[in-house]
Fold this sequence. Notes:
This protein is an alpha+beta fold. Helix content is about 50%, strand content about 15%. The chain contains 24 helices and 23 strands. A hairpin with an 8-residue loop joins strand 15 (about 490-495) and strand 16. Helix 20 runs parallel beside helix 23.
Amino acid sequence: MLKNYLTLALRTLWRHRGQTAINTAGLALGMACCLLIALYIRDELRYDRFHEHAADIYRVHVGDDLELTPTIVAPLAVRSLPGVAAAARLYDIGRFQDMVVQRGDVRFLESRFFYADSTVFDVFSFPFLAGLPDAALTRPNTVVLTAPMAEKYFGSEDPIGQTLAIGSRTYEVTGVLAPIPAASHLQFDFLASFATVHWATEEQWGSANFLTYLRLSSGVEATAIEAALERSVAEAREVGEVWPEFRLVLQPLLGIHLVYEGRQTYVYLLASIGLLLLVIACVNYVNLTTARAIYRAREVGIRKAAGAHRSQLIGQYLGESLVLAVVAAVAGLVIAALGLPAFNAISGKDLTLMGDPAVWATLGGVVLLVGLAGGSYPAFLLASFRPASILKPSASSGGSGRLRRALVVFQFAATVVLLLATFAVRRQLHFVQDKDLGFNREHVVALPIPVGDEATQRAYEPFREAMLQMASVTHVAAVNDLPGYQGGGYGLVVEGAMDEEALPIGGVPSDARVVETLGLRLVAGDNLRVVPADSIASGSYQYLLNEKAVLAMGWTPEEAVGKRVTLSGNRWGTVAGVIADYHFLSLHEAIEPMAYFVEPWSCNYIIVRLAPGQTREALAGLEALWADWMPARPFAYSFLDAELEKLYLREAQAGQVFGLASVLAIVIACMGLFGLAAFSAARRTKEIGIRKVLGASVAQLVVLLSREFTGLVVLSFLLGAPLAYLFMQSWLQAFAYQAPNAWTLYPLVGAGVLAIAWLTVSYQAIRTALADPVDSLRYE
C-alpha cells in the first residue's frame, strides 16, 4: 500500500510539473531560511551553558544598567553570605587599552586581556589543557593563556613556566585554556592574576570598575542573596560610602547574552521572519492545490465509487504532500549551504551545517510540519468530495475561493510589513550616520596608547609637536575615550555642598586641546589651558561642562564659569567654560550631563585630525613618527567615523535581514500568484475565446484577468501598512533620537508591490488574451 501511494504521488507530481516546480521552489526557499535561522537561534540560546554550574552563576550589577561593581563586593559576599559558594572579580583592561605582549622578537597588541581573581575557575568551567586551575592565578605576575595565544607566542613549545613581557611587567605562564567557545559572553585571550595589581587589596565601595560573579550553592535563591547584600549596602549608605540610589542586583548568567545584552529581541525577530517565510511558502502550496482540486475531483469520485475509503484518500494526498516536502527539503538544504557564507557575514557568526545534529532535527521537523500542516487542508478537502455530485458533467470544485483570496492577502500583507520595516530600519541608519552629533567626526584618526605609562606620558608632548609639523595633520589631542563611548560615571559636587548632593555625570579625562581637535563649540567661558602634567593637583583641575550639566545644576552658562567643583574624589578645580551639548554616547541614549577635565595620564587615545584628501600620506607619516617616539609599542589606528558605525552594528544587521526577507517574501508570494493566475486563466479559457470573438481587445482582457488580484494586493497593503507602522514605532523606542516618519514611503511601497503583482499576473493574462479564439473554444 505504501509503495502504491508513493508511486501515485510521484506520478501526480510529475503530471503537474509546473505546479510542482512552483511549490518546490517556494518551499525550498522557505525551508532554507527556516534552517539558517534555526541554526542562529540555537547558537544564541546556548550561550554560557557549557559551564558546569551555569544555572547557579550570577553577575552582580549596580542597579539595572551598570555591570561594573566596586572591588569590595566579591570578598564581602564570600565572607558574609553562606549561600555564596564562590566569587570572582574580573577587570577588562582591554576595554580601555590594548596590551603590548612580547616574547623575543614576537610582539603584538592584544585587546582581549583581563585581570582575574584566582577563584575565577571556581566559578566558571573553562577547561584547562595545561596547568592547575587551583594554583594558576594565586601568585602575582602570573597569566593563563588560551590555546591559540599559546601557539601564537610559543609555537610547539610547552608554555608552562615560560615568561611573556606584557606592558611593563614580566608574567609567568601558569596555564593554558581550551579556546573560549564562541557562545560565551566572556571573551578573552589572557587572564592575568588580580594579585598583580594594587586593586586586589583595596576593598572599597568607591570606584565601580570590576565585573563580579557569584556562584551560589545549589538551591539558594538569588533574591535571598540580594536581600543580604542590601543589608551591607545599607550600612555603607549610612556612612556615605555609596550614593543613596546605590543597590546591587543579581543577573543570571544564562540571561546575560539574551536579555541584558539585548539579543532577545533579535532572536524573536529572526524567529518570526523564518516562520513567516515558511508560512508564506505553505500558503502557496495550499492555494495551488485547492485551486487545482477541480482537476482531481473526478479521480476522487471514481476512486470512491470503486470502494476507496476516505482515510485512504487522505493518506494518499498527505503522502503526496510529504514527498513534495522531502524534495523541497533537499533543495532547501542545498540553498542553505550555498547561502551560509553570506548569512554568516550578516550575522557575524561562524555557523556550520554539517556535523550538527540540530540541522537534521530541524530539517526533519520542518518536513513534517510542511508536509502535514501544508497538506492537511487540501487532503481533507479532496477526500470530502461526494462521488454522486462530482461525476455529474457540470460538477466543479476548487475549494473555497474565499480562503484562497484570504491567503493571498496574508502573503502580500506580510510582504508589505517586511518591505516597510526594511526601509524604516535603513532610514534610521541613514539618520544616525548623517545627524549632526555636535562634533566633527570626519578625518579623525585614533591612536591607542597605554594609560598610566610614564614613558608614554614623557613622550606625548614632543610626539604631538612632531605630528603637528606634518602638513597632513591639523590638530592633535589626547582623551580617555572616544566620542560615542564616553560613559564614565562620576559625581559632580559644587563647593559647599554635601557629597550626597552629587550630580551623576559622565566624565572624560583629556588634555587641553580636545575642543579644537573634535570641533566642539564653546558656549561660555574659556577653553582649557595647557599646563604641565606634573603641576596638576587637587585644587588646580580645569573643567568644561556641557549645557545639560549646567542646566541640571540650576546655573546659566555664564554663572557656571568660575564655579569651584570636584568630580568623584579629590579633584577640586574650576569650571573654565561651557560647551554645547553633543552626543558623547550613541543615539540610543539621550544626552546627559558630562564634563571634560585635564588629566592626561588617564588618556587612552591620541586623536589626530587630518587634512582632507591626505589620509594615505598622513598614515604613512604617523607610522614613521610612531616608530621613533613609541618604539616599544606596535603602531595601530582606527578612524573615528568607523568606530561610531560599530555602535549601530546590530541595527545594520537587522536592516540586512529585513531586506533579504523582503526579497524572499516577494519571490515566494509572486510564485504563488503566478500559479494562481495560470489556474484562473485556464478556467476562463472558453470565456476569453467568446469575448475575443465578440470583439474584446487584448487590453480589456488583461484588465479583466488582473482585476481580482489587483484588489487583493490593494487590500493587503491596507492591512499591512498599519501593522508595519506599529511594529517600527516599537522598534524605534530603542533610540532616543529617531528619524522622522516618511509618510511618502507608504504609497511608494504600495505602488511597488502592486506593480510587481501586476507584472506577475500580466504574463499569464497576456498569454491567454493573445491565444487563438478557435483553440480557446475547443478547450476541454
